């Protein structure tokens, strides 16, 4: 399938919006509403791709991987597809996808994650207690980033490795998914640096056999994956499992501390952590979108999308679609009964492999915050600030007061 297959005239609604421009990234939701109003699929001229902004159109595409392929299609630029995700579980279809996904399926199954619950909660408790003598802390750099990085490196089998540089490298990897812009090209060398770092630390003699990497090496020994795929697996799980969860936790802290009633509902156990997790991801998908390659001409609403074209699945927009969520789609409410229907973890074959782990991390972190900082509140002297990223909705800092 070539990338030049899209030289025919566009049929269907189109838009000049640049989804990856600074202005849209700073506050994407008005642009998303504009695109949803145009139709379930809209040709984005500046991206040379069709964007799917509505809940129903994103879900339908996720359920039809034979038409909307992940191979050579996750990034809206050829370099990303070729150098960053090619050969990984994320960018595979069919039997190849099943083969790669099997490597860690046992380790990430609900039962295995339930077995980790005590240690994940103890780790969160220890970290939160270490912040107890402070009047304020940053939920990104003092809490979510060290917690999630520590969890992932330990599970990978690399607890002794300093992974503090990984968070920024993963941010850069996500930048590479967009249509060509300066952030994409700044991200490519950082992605390369991440692979090199992982290749150096993830050697066989460096990891325990009961870790994720140990499982990958065992799969290589059984001939189920190639040796090189051990590092690819590590890279896919590091990319997918770190900044996503870090910023989901930071968003939840930001939303809960800016609305006392919501915090009290969570803190006092009136709603389960699962409801907080679902509503946070619906309200602000950490991964705002991913691409797909169209394998055969297909019609979505009034748009005819030719074979070989690319589409952009707008997870972030799908979470704000009034047709699905009602008139209060832009309101954060942990009582929302159907929040778990969100598409922020994907759906169908590529449904997030780490979804049970991410939920457990939420449970552990917010349980610890509720126990130790019942009065958690925003820090008026240091309002939250963001970092612009092509794909992730991320924070620079979310400062909070421990006892206002
Ligand atoms: C709140 C946190 C998370 C969010 C929002 C998130 C989001 C997503 C999304 C949207 C996909 C689907 C990609 C697609 O359809 O192309 C995905 C897949 C994936 N996620 Fe997550 N993720 C999170 C946490 C994690 C964690 C903790 C891990 C594990 C360490 C993880 C590992 C993966 C993997 C391996 C895939 C690829 C699955 C496949 O292609 O079959 N994720 N994630």
From TrEMBL:
<comment type="similarity">
    <text>Belongs to the cytochrome P450 family.</text>
</comment>
<dbReference type="InterPro" id="IPR036396">
    <property type="entry name" value="Cyt_P450_sf"/>
</dbReference>
<dbReference type="Pfam" id="PF00067">
    <property type="entry name" value="p450"/>
</dbReference>
<dbReference type="InterPro" id="IPR002397">
    <property type="entry name" value="Cyt_P450_B"/>
</dbReference>
<protein>
    <submittedName>
        <fullName>Cytochrome P450</fullName>
    </submittedName>
</protein>
<dbReference type="InterPro" id="IPR001128">
    <property type="entry name" value="Cyt_P450"/>
</dbReference>
């Amino acid at each position: 399938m070539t990338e030049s297959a899209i030289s025919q005239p566009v049929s269907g609604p189109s838009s000049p919006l640049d989804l990856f421009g600074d202005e849209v990234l700073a506050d994407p939701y008005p642009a998303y509403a504009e695109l949803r109003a145009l139709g379930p699929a809209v040709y984005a001229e500046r991206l040379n791709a069709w964007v799917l902004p509505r809940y129903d159109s994103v879900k339908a595409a996720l359920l039809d991987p034979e038409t909307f392929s992940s191979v050579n299609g996750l990034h809206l630029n050829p370099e990303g597809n070729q150098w960053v995700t090619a050969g990984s579980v994320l960018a595979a279809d069919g039997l190849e996808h099943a083969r790669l996904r099997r490597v860690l399926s046992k380790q990430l199954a609900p039962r295995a994650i339930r077995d980790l619950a005590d240690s994940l909660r103890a780790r969160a408790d220890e970290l939160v207690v270490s912040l107890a003598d402070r009047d304020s802390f940053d939920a990104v750099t003092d809490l979510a980033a060290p917690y999630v990085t520590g969890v992932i490196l330990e599970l990978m089998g690399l607890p002794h490795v300093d992974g503090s540089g990984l968070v920024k490298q993963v941010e850069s990897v996500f930048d590479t998914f967009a249509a060509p812009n300066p952030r994409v090209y700044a991200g490519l060398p950082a992605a390369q640096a991440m692979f090199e770092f992982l290749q150096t630390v993830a050697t066989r003699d460096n990891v325990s056999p009961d870790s994720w990497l140990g499982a990958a090496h065992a799969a290589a020994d059984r001939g189920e994956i190639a040796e090189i795929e051990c590092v690819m697996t590590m890279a896919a799980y590091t990319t997918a499992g770190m900044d996503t969860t870090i910023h989901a936790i930071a968003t939840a802290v930001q939303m809960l501390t800016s609305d006392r009633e919501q915090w009290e509902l969570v803190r006092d156990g009136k709603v389960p952590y699962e409801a907080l997790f679902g509503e946070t991801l619906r309200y602000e998908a950490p991964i705002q979108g991913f691409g797909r390659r169209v394998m055969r001409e297909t019609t979505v609403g009034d748009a005819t999308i030719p074979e070989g074209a690319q589409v952009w699945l707008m997870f972030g927009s799908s979470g704000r679609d009034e047709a699905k969520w009602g008139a209060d789609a832009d309101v954060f409410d942990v009582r929302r009964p159907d929040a778990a229907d969100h598409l922020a973890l994907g759906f169908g074959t590529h449904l997030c492999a780490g979804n049970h782990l991410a939920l457990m991390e939420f449970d552990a972190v917010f349980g610890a915050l509720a126990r130790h900082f019942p009065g958690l509140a925003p820090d008026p002297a240091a309002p939250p600030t963001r970092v612009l990223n092509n794909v992730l909705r991320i924070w620079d800092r979310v400062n909070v007061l421990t006892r206002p």
